[in-house]
Design a protein that fits this description.
This protein has 14 helices and 3 strands. Strand 1 and strand 2 form a beta hairpin. Helix 1 packs antiparallel against helix 7 and helix 2 packs antiparallel against helix 13.
Length: 358
């Protein structure tokens, strides 16, 4: 028997059981690591904050760009949200297209609300960050307990999902979908197993288009503004809150205005290129500031330092690292062939099979 199953002419490739079990091992391992980071935020706050914000989070955008399907398979919150399905007590409610749009928009708005709070609380307060992660885990678990497969959290309200959609245009690796043993069409089109252009063309609801446009246009300025605010320690004033949100949201509004004006004057056939330019600029902006900061060369030297190498690295290292960031991501988004666009993960067999080729 051939290892491809067909429904209405659509191929659904099977993933080997051995590979599936390996992914399960990695998922459980990362879930244990996530719990360990959570506990360290409470009992060893400095260590927990360093592991979360200065090790795990800086790697995530690069992984989204190159192989977001790998992250979708191993994300601890994603694994936690799907436990109700794996243990057979999820209600598996089908999420209507309109509510999929609302969830998508909510994910973008949550991202823009949560991230400025890093400067105010989460970057410097381990227990507060642990409480935030606990609420996120509860929300993910409730979403998985209520809605069909990934539709509620991983492909719905998760605030990281919009960034995955923006950055993962030309992934290098397409792993098997290690969460879905069968495809239930919980989200149409499936973000995991549809190439980006198909997802964009299928976003016909106004809410989906609004969420996509808002994130694509705003993220560049949002990131730029975020890096121009220092982390706060101790008591926080209303002025600190205003500063944290004004820089991020102000930058977001400026870049969104530029994005919309450009779309207005550009021909429709260039809209995808314009979006790719903003996606590239956003990830370049992130690593332009974040990579030097990891080693003590940030705008605010005490913020976001993984290892302080200011006494070891030469001064020209910062400029060299930024040039490499621009060169790599500029090539990846703008000059790497469009034919290399691919789905994030291999689609598993459909839940209802109609005919099988022998």
């Amino acid at each position: 028997m051939n290892n491809a199953t067909y429904i209405g002419g659509t191929e659904a490739r099977l993933h080997p059981n051995q590979s599936f079990l390996k992914w399960r091992f990695v998922q459980v391992s990362l879930l244990v690591v996530g719990i360990a980071i959570f506990l360290s935020l409470i009992f060893l706050p400095e260590t927990g904050l360093n592991l979360l914000w200065n090790l795990l989070i800086p790697v995530a955008p690069l992984l989204f760009v190159i192989a977001v399907g790998v992250w979708r398979n191993i994300c601890p919150l994603g694994t936690f949200s799907l436990l109700p399905h794996h243990f057979k007590f999820s209600k598996k409610k089908r999420l209507k297209v309109k509510w999929q749009g609302w969830f998508s928009l909510a994910g973008v708005l949550l991202l823009f609300i949560i991230v400025p709070f890093r400067h105010l609380v989460f970057d410097s307060n381990g227990p507060a960050t642990a409480i935030f992660l606990a609420f996120a885990a509860i929300a993910a678990f409730i979403a998985g307990s209520t809605f069909q497969w990934k539709s509620g959290w991983c492909s719905g309200i998760c605030p990281v999902h919009p960034v995955e959609k923006l950055y993962a245009e030309k992934v290098k690796f397409t792993p098997p979908n290690a969460h879905c043993s069968q495809c239930a069409n919980c989200v149409i089109p499936c973000p995991d197993s549809s190439p980006p252009t198909k997802r964009v063309k299928a976003a016909k609801s106004r809410l989906h288009r609004t969420a996509l446009c808002l994130l694509t246009g705003s993220l560049l300025g949002f990131i730029w503004g975020w890096f121009h605010v220092p982390d706060q320690a101790g008591a926080i004033s209303w002025g600190d809150v205003l500063t944290a949100f004004a820089w991020s949201w102000g930058g977001a509004l400026v870049s969104l205005a530029i994005f919309l004006i450009g779309r207005h004057f550009l021909k429709k056939k260039y809209h995808n290129n314009w979006s790719s330019l903003f996606a590239a600029a956003a990830v370049i902006c992130y690593y332009w500031y974040r990579l030097p900061a990891l080693f003590g060369f940030g705008l605010f030297p005490n913020d976001g330092v993984l290892v302080d190498l200011t006494a070891s690295l030469p001064a020209w290292w910062v400029g060299a690292s930024q040039i490499l960031v621009v060169a790599f991501f500029g090539w990846w988004f703008l000059f790497r062939g469009r034919h290399q666009e691919a789905e994030w993960a291999v689609r598993p067999p459909f839940a209802v099979l109609r005919k099988t080729r022998r």
